[in-house]
Design brief:
Two copies of one chain form a homodimer.
Chain A lengths: L10 E2 L9 H6 L10 H17 L6 E5 L3 H12 L5 E6 L2 H13 L2 E6 L8 H11 L3 E5 L1 E2 L4 E2 L5 H8 L2 E5 L11 H4 L3 E3 L13 E5 L1 H8 L28 H8 L11 H17 L1 H22 L14 E5 L6 H12 L1 E2 L11 E5 L7 H17 L8 H11 L2
Parallel strand pairs in A: 1-12, 3-4, 3-5, 5-8, 8-9
Antiparallel strand pairs in A: 2-10, 6-7, 9-10, 11-13
Protein name (chains A, B): Aminotransferase class-V family protein
GO molecular function (chains A, B): alanine-glyoxylate transaminase activity; L-serine-pyruvate transaminase activity
Cofactor (chains A, B): pyridoxal 5'-phosphate
Chain lengths: 406, 406
C-alpha cells in the first residue's frame, strides 16, 4: 500500500500548473452536496456570476466544463463546428496546432493563417484571410504558452460580424493574468483553465458563450433519451458530435431547467468558484499589473544574467517568458538542479523549441516579487555551477520592483 | 462578492454523489506539482497500481480520465468504435440509452438487446444477438442506477472471444461497492467514477483497458502535431474522433513516454488515489459485504415501513434501492421534508420512473449502519407527517444488522 499524499513543497515557476492559492485548496476540502440541492445550484449560479466578472462579459452562458482546459477547447469547437464547416485557424504555436488537430477530427474544412513561432499574426492578415475564405468560425489562441506570445484580438468581433462568422478564443494561459475582455473583443466563445493565472488545479475549464453562439448551438440541440421530456423538440441543425461536450445539453444543465447531463464535479466547482473570488477580490486591474510587473522583472533579470529572451518583445505574454538556453549548457541539467537544489520548477519547451528555451512562468499565486527574485537567484546559481558565467539577475529584477513601488 | 464555500452538513443517501471520505477531501488539500515532476509521475504510477487492485485486473493500462464518469464512457466508446463499426448495446435503463446516444453521435451502426426497466437482459439473449449481428464492440452497463438493477456479465469475455468483438462495461455505479472482476469477466474496457461507491468527488473517471483493446486503440494512434517526434508513425486504423478522449494519446501520457496531452487534474488525481487506497485498505470483500448488508437493510426497512420496492429482487444492485412512492403521497414533498427537516438527501428518478420511485443509495462512506437507520427513521417520520400510515422500518433494518453481527 502506498503512503498518503505528501508532495514536496515545490515552487512551480513553469508555464503551469503553478502552486494553487491555499484558499482554493481549502475550498476543495468542503464536503459534497447533491447535484440538485439548492445550495449546490446556488453555488453553480454564483460561479456563473463570478466568471462573468473574470471574463469581463455580460454573457448569460458563463460556467465551467468538467475537464481540463483542453476539454473547454474541444467543447467549444465541437459545438460551434458542424461537419464540413469552414474554420479559419490563427496559428503561431503548439496550441494553434491543437486547434487544427481538433478540427481535423471533427471533419471541419479548415484553413489557417500562420506566423512563425515567436511571432503573432498581424490582424490585417487575419482579416484578409477571413474575407477571402468566409469561414463559419474563426478560432485563435490568446496566449500560446509554447511560444510565450499573446495574439492581439481587439477587432475579432467586428471582423466576425462583417463576414457572418462566430469566433472561438482559447484564453487558458491568460485568463486572470492578462486582460481577456470578452465583450470588448466581441468574441463568441472563450475558454480557459484554472491551473495558470487563476491559481487553481487543472480539471475545470471556465467558458463563456455569447447569446449569438448560444442560439447557434441550441439549433443543434438534441436532448438525450432517458431525460428528455415527451414534448421536447430538437434543433434543426446538425447534432453535436459529442455527448460529453454538447454545450446545448450542458447549458440546459446550468439553466433553470437543470436537465441532468453529467454529475457536476463538485470539488472542482468549489475550486473554480474560489479562484474567481480571489481574482475579483484582488481586482482585475491590480492583478494584470501584478503579472505584468512580474513578467518584466523576469525578462530584465534574465537579460541581466546574460541570457537572451525568446520572441517578439512587443507581443510577449506578461506571465510566461521564454529564455534561450546558452550554448554549452544542457537545459535539462539546469532544470534538474533547480528542482533538486532549490525545489523550483521551470519549464521545458515543445516541438521546434525543445532543448532551445526554458519557459519561466510567474502566474497567479506565484506572480510575486519574492518568487521571481528567488527563481532568478536560483537560476544564476545553477548556471554558474554548470560553468556559465552568469551575472546577477536578482539585482535588476529587484530594481525594477523598487522603481515600480510594488 | 459571494461568501466562502460553506455547504450544509447533509447526508447524501441518493444514487450519488454521496458524502466524500474525509481522507479524500484532505488529500485534495495538498499543493500541486509540476506535471512531469518525478513525485507527480510517481503518484500517477501509484494510482495505476491501486486501480488495478480496485478493478481486480492485471491490465497495464489502468489510470484515470480527467472528467466525470460520463467522460470515461465517451473516451472508451470513441476510442473503441470506428465510424460505421457495429456496436451491440445491452440496454435496460437510462445509461443504456446513453450508450446508444453516444454511439449515434460517433456514427456507429449499433443494434440493441433490450429489457424493460427494472429487469436485466438474460445473458443468452445477449449471446444470441451477438452471434446474429457479429458486432465489433459489445457495450453494457453493469449497474444502471436509473433502474437499480445490476446486469450479469460473467461470460462477456468468452462471448467476445467467440465472435471476435471487444467489450465495454460502464461500472460507474458499482466499482468499489459491488464486485467488478474485470479479468474474470474478460472485459476489455471498464470505466467508473469516484462519486458513488468510491466515496470521492465527481470529476475523475477510473478506466482499465485490456492489452487486446490497447492494441486496437494504438492502431488508431495519430499523435498531435506540436508534440510528435519527427520519426513518429501513425496507426493504420481510422483516427479517433476526439482529441481529448483519444485513449492512444492518453496512454502515451500515462506511459514512460510521458507525451504531453492534457495537464493532469492534480487534485482530482490525489482524490482518485486516496479513494483507491481507502478501498484496498478496507479490503474489497469486506467492502462488498458492507454494501450488500446496507442494501438489504434498506430493502427490509422500506418493506417494513409498508413501501413496495422497485424491480427484480434477483438482480438488485446492493448499493441503491428503488422504492415506490405510495399513492396519495407527493414524492417531491417527502424529498423536501427529508432535506429540510433531517438534512438528508434521497434521490428522485428519471424518464418513465420520474415521480414513481425514490432511489435510496448507501454507497462508499455512507454504506453504514447508522446512516441507513437514520435515513429510514427520517423517511418514516416524513411519510407520517404527510399522512401515510408508515410502520417502523428502523426496527427491521436494525434486526438485520444485528443478525449479521456487523
Amino acid at each position: 500500500m502506498f503512503a498518503e499524499i505528501d508532495p514536496p513543497q515545490r515552487l512551480l515557476m513553469g508555464p503551469g500548473p503553478v502552486n494553487a492559492y491555499p484558499r482554493v485548496l481549502r475550498a476543495m476540502s468542503a464536503d459534497l452536496l447533491g447535484q440538485f440541492d439548492p445550495e449546490m445550484t446556488g453555488y453553480m449560479n454564483e460561479t456563473m456570476a463570478l466568471y462573468r466578472g473574470v471574463f469581463q462579459t455580460q454573457n448569460r452562458w458563463t460556467f465551467v466544463i468538467d475537464g481540463t482546459a483542453r476539454a473547454g477547447i474541444e467543447a467549444a469547437l465541437v459545438s460551434l463546428t458542424e461537419p464540413g464547416a469552414k474554420v479559419l485557424i490563427v496559428r503561431s504555436g503548439r496550441f494553434g496546432l491543437l486547434l487544427t488537430e481538433i478540427c481535423e477530427r471533427l471533419g471541419a474544412d479548415y484553413v489557417t493563417v500562420d506566423a512563425d513561432w515567436g511571432q503573432v499574426v498581424p490582424f490585417d492578415r487575419i482579416a484578409q484571410a477571413a474575407r477571402a475564405h468566409r469561414p463559419q468560425v474563426i478560432a485563435a489562441i490568446h496566449g500560446d504558452t509554447s511560444t510565450t506570445m499573446a495574439q492581439p484580438l481587439d477587432s475579432l468581433g467586428e471582423l466576425c460580424r462583417e463576414i457572418g462568422a462566430l469566433s472561438y478564443v482559447d484564453a487558458t494561459a491568460t485568463l486572470g493574468g492578462m486582460s481577456v475582455p470578452v465583450d470588448a473583443w466581441g468574441a463568441d466563445i472563450v475558454t480557459a483553465g484554472l491551473q495558470k493565472c487563476l491559481g487553481g488545479p487543472s480539471g475545470s475549464a471556465p467558458i463563456t458563450i455569447s447569446d449569438r453562439a448560444a442560439e447557434f448551438i441550441f439549433a443543434r440541440r438534441h436532448t438525450e433519451k432517458g431525460i428528455r421530456a415527451s414534448d421536447a423538440t430538437d434543433g434543426n441543425r446538425a447534432r453535436i458530435g459529442s455527448n460529453y461536450f454538447d454545450l446545448a445539453m450542458i447549458m440546459d444543465y446550468w439553466s433553470e431547467k437543470r436537465l441532468n447531463h453529467h454529475t457536476e464535479a463538485t470539488s472542482m466547482l468549489y475550486a473554480a468558484r474560489e479562484c474567481a473570488r480571489i481574482a475579483l477580490q484582488e481586482g482585475l486591474e491590480a492583478r494584470f499589473a501584478r503579472h505584468e510587473l512580474a513578467g518584466r522583472a523576469v525578462v530584465a533579470g534574465a537579460r541581466a544574467i546574460g541570457l537572451a529572451v525568446y520572441g517578439d518583445d512587443a507581443h510577449r505574454m506578461t506571465n510566461v517568458t521564454g529564455i534561450f538556453i546558452p550554448d554549452a549548457i544542457d537545459g535539462e541539467t539546469i532544470r534538474r538542479r533547480m528542482r533538486e537544489d532549490f525545489e523550483i520548477e521551470i519549464g521545458t519547451a515543445f516541438g521546434p523549441l525543445a532543448g532551445k528555451i526554458w519557459r519561466i512562468g510567474a502566474m497567479g499565486y506565484n506572480a510575486r516579487k519574492h518568487k521571481v527574485l528567488i527563481t532568478l537567484g536560483a537560476l544564476e546559481g545553477c548556471l554558474r555551477a554548470e560553468g556559465f558565467a552568469a551575472r546577477s539577475g536578482v539585482d535588476a529584477a529587484l530594481e525594477m520592483y523598487e522603481a515600480s513601488h510594488a
